[in-house]
Every structure is written in C-alpha cells, then in structure tokens.
Write a structure and sequence with these properties.
- It is a single chain.
- This protein has nine helices and no strands.
- The chain is mostly helical.
- Helix 4 crosses helix 5.
- The longest helix has 23 residues.
- The termini are far apart.
C-alpha cells in the first residue's frame, strides 16, 4: 500500500483498470475530501451531497472499468467535472422558473462595495442579500451557475474553473460576466435590493 501512495493518479488508474482494488482505494482517499467539500458547498444538503458523491465515484469506477478514461494528467479535474455535471442534473430537475435574458447592464453585482461591508450592524442585511443571491444563482443557465459557484463558493481561480469545466479561460470569464448581468436583471425583476444604504 505504501508503494501505491507514492504513485501518480494516472498510474493508479492504470493499475485499477487491470483489477487492483487497492489502487482505487488510494485514489478515493486522495480525492474524496475535495470532491465531497465541492459538492456540499454547492448543494448545501448533507443527504444530497452523499447521493451525488456516491454517484460521482460510481461513474468514475464504471468509466475506468470500461476502458473509457482518457484524460491523462487531469484526473482530479475529470472527477470534478463528473461531480458538477451530476449537480447540474440535480438542479435541472429542481428548477421550474425560466431564466432571464443576457441584456447588458452596467452594475457588477459581486464588485459592489456595499456588499463587501462586514461590520456587525450590516451583517444581517448582508446575510439576507446573499441568501437572495444564492436563490437566484439556482435559476442561472447551467454553464453560468457552475462558474459562479466555483469562483465564489469554492474560491477557484479562472484557470482552475477552465480546467474543471473543459473550456478556455476566456469562455469561463465570459460566462461569469453573463451570470452577473443575469443576476442583476433577476434582482430588478423581482425587486430584490442587492445593495443596502450605508
């Protein structure tokens, strides 16, 4: 087992594909914490997190066993992509509202200075604002929502987001821009106050 722990993800995948279950145990132990945390950050539900986590690794096992894993050198990004696709599937089933258009507006929701205040008297209002934002994020188009969640709830860089979602950095940045425009429009339509008076 000590030998296995020094191997790269790719070497372990090859071993597991050949029938070495201990190799998969090492892979699972190596990545389960970050995958589990990522899922929980987004869905915020312990039972649902467990379901999606189990399903993620079931897909990993199936794909490797069927000889369909080809993403050499990017095993962790590949697992994260499987996890976020399953999260998207779950949100898609839940969502029952139409998304709004990508009309241009001039307000950057996440760079609003008022949202950065953290003194005690503002915190309750801030928490309500963020609760409203989280509800609205669920109604973004899938590719925009995943970028927002990875950036603001997982603190991932745009390079990490690009790797995990299989797109270029420019595409990830573009999706973030449209997501912010969408959130602002949703706030206007539902008369949600995203900034509060100082």
């Amino acid at each position: 087992m000590n030998n296995l722990k020094t191997m790269t993800d790719e070497e372990l995948v090859v071993l597991y594909a050949k029938g070495s279950n201990p190799a998969f145990d090492v892979l699972l132990n190596r990545h389960k914490s970050s995958v589990h945390s990522y899922i929980y950050y987004i869905v915020r539900d312990s039972d649902l997190t467990e379901d999606i986590f189990q399903e993620t690794f079931l897909k990993v096992i199936t794909t490797i066993k069927q000889g369909r894993y080809t993403e050499t050198g990017k095993f962790k990004a590949w697992i994260m992509r499987i996890a976020h696709n399953l999260i998207i599937d779950n949100f898609r089933q839940e969502r029952n509202e139409n998304t709004i258009s990508n009309d241009e507006v001039d307000v950057d929701l996440f760079n609003d200075a008022d949202l950065c205040e953290s003194n005690i008297e503002d915190r309750m209002v801030h928490d309500q604002v963020m609760s409203d934002v989280r509800k609205m994020i669920r109604h973004l188009p899938d590719n925009q929502r995943e970028v927002v969640e990875m950036r603001y709830y997982q603190d991932m860089s745009f390079k990490e987001i690009a790797d995990a979602t299989g797109v270029s950095i420019n595409t990830a940045l573009g999706r973030m821009r449209y997501a912010i425009l969408n959130l602002r429009r949703m706030a206007d339509e539902h008369k949600i106050e995203l900034a509060y008076a100082s």
